[in-house]
């Protein structure tokens, strides 16, 4: 259930989104995971729900952290490219090719930044569902 080992392609936004979609599978399937691993009251003696919830929480947190780092890395990379393009544009202000590249990078940066908002919503939803099902079995550590 861990995030895939694929690297995030920051150059092509559609590939960037596709890899994120694959990396978000754990969050998309959180309800199914909880239903199949956390026992109901009648089966509570057969499975260690505390350990199961703890493992699921750790896997989920690892996936969240991996995605967050990947998105922020791409944002930093794209911002760096934009900085270089701005410098080139300052030297050659008449170049339409540079202007188009700069606009393209600005658009890509805005879309990547919006992925951080999507990530926050996905993470909040997953944590809410996790809390609803695992609150009596496992209490996650407080985040500082």
TrEMBL record:
InterPro entries referenced in this protein's UniProt entry, alphabetically: MIX23
GO CC terms in record: mitochondrial intermembrane space
Family as reported in the entry's similarity comment: Belongs to the MIX23 family.
Protein's recorded name: Protein MIX23
């Amino acid at each position: 259930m861990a995030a895939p080992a694929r690297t995030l392609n920051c150059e092509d936004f559609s590939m960037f989104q596709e890899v994120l979609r694959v990396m978000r599978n754990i969050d998309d399937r959180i309800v199914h995971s909880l239903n199949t691993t956390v026992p109901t009251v009648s089966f509570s003696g057969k499975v260690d729900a505390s350990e199961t919830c703890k493992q699921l929480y750790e896997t989920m947190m690892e996936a969240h952290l991996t995605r967050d780092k990947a998105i922020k890395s791409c944002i930093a990379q794209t911002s760096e490219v934009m900085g270089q393009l701005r410098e080139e544009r300052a030297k050659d202000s008449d170049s339409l090719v540079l202007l188009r590249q700069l606009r393209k990078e600005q658009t890509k940066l805005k879309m990547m930044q919006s992925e951080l908002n999507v990530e926050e919503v996905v993470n909040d939803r997953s944590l809410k569902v996790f809390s609803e099902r695992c609150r009596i079995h496992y209490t996650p550590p407080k985040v500082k």
